[in-house]
Amino acid sequence: MSSAHGSWLSERLTARTFLKPHHVARAVFHPAWIPEAVDPSVEQLKRIRVVAGAVAALGVYTFVQGGFAFDEMLDNAATASAVLFFITPLTVGVMLYVWRRGGTVRQLKAPLVNAFKLLLLFIGSVLTTVLIFRLGDVFGILPKLVLSLAGLWLAFFVIAGAVRLTGNFFGTAAVHRGLPPLLATVTTWLMAVPDLVTGDLHGLSLTLGILFILGAPVTVTAIALLELRRLRRRHGIRLTAHPAVLPPVTPPPPPYAPQGPGGFLPPQGHPYGPPQGHPYGHPYGTPPPYNPRNPYGG
Question: pTM of the full predicted structure?
């Protein structure tokens, strides 16, 4: 599906595309209506943070707890989905109240509805994945094998979608550029507080457990503050201002203009304008005009 008005997918999907769940996730969880990032360096930091967090979590579940705690990972995924379902609309509602003097909710209706649809789509994908793996323990060998294959496809689809959603946080960047870092900060802290309160250190020592639990929210908060600071200083975007009163933001152009289906060509033409005469001038000054007469007279 193209990126024309009214479309959702950021790229066209074919039957062959579904063999690669991360390609499907890219098209579904980064829709065509989501604006481009204004700071690519911050987006790269977000992806690094997600990968580092996933590696750390996998290491805890695999090595520290003496085996791969797959059931606990499924439970945590379901819990995180429930937190997202309640916290994301609540946080956006608080910001709408903050923005009430600068504009109306009606002005933001379309991006708000799209963001809520994207949130429900992701939560539905997570819960479906958890349900399929749970049902695999009920049926026989052949149905369990089929469900396991479907569950693995969905697991890769959800993980790739989560990486995509770290930049736009369910498309809320289309509502306000400051919402994604705010929502990421609020969500990670709310996910970490219960572990601190209950003392669930995931089998780690007291010091390592606290560092592991607080590492994610502290890192996310630092990146979020960096992003909000750059939005305010470079683009004049303040979190407390209604999107209707904010200046328009133009994403930085790519270093080279795209040429063809996936290639890039450098800018054409002389980089310093059209050449004027000899590029370094005549080495011995301006030569005299050519004289066809005999140089020895006559």
Answer: 0.74
